[in-house]
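Before the break, one more example. Copy the sequence into your notebook; we will annotate it together after we see the structure.
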Amino acid sequence: MIEGPYLVLAVLGVLATGLMAGVFCAYSVLVMRGLAALPPAQGVAAMNAINRAAMRPAFMVVFGGAALACVVIAVVTFVMWPDEGTVELLVGSGLYLAGAFGVTVVANVPRNDALLRLEAGSPEAVRSWPSYLRQWTRWNHVRALASAAAALAYLLALV
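Here is what the structure looks like once it is written out:
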């Protein structure tokens, strides 16, 4: 079993990535399904409001904090190379940084930015809404799975 700072880092990794897995999962199975049930103009307006709210500290601290924790875990693991849990700690960091943070940057945020440029009731917004929902949710599933797998990897480092 890992000890010392690795124990603290692994527990922090489990908590941070597990929390984000829950957030992403809730979006996929609850929020996006609810928005899909609305008329397109209302769905676009609601998602734009959610995207604006996500830029506030409450979410950004959790999301960015999880990424920062993963970076710290990866760097400390590379520098100190512990006797146990090395692979699990590096895999957990890689999964979250690529599969959650990276996917957010390259897939979800560009879609959010494009949606924010549309007037909610415009013909273009109504036309693009179904595609946005499908693509955004698909990538969000990836984020949820990557975050859950990262939490599992960190948890495995503890045993």
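Residues 123-158 form the longest helix (36 residues). The chain has a mean pLDDT of 95. Try to locate both features in your own notes.
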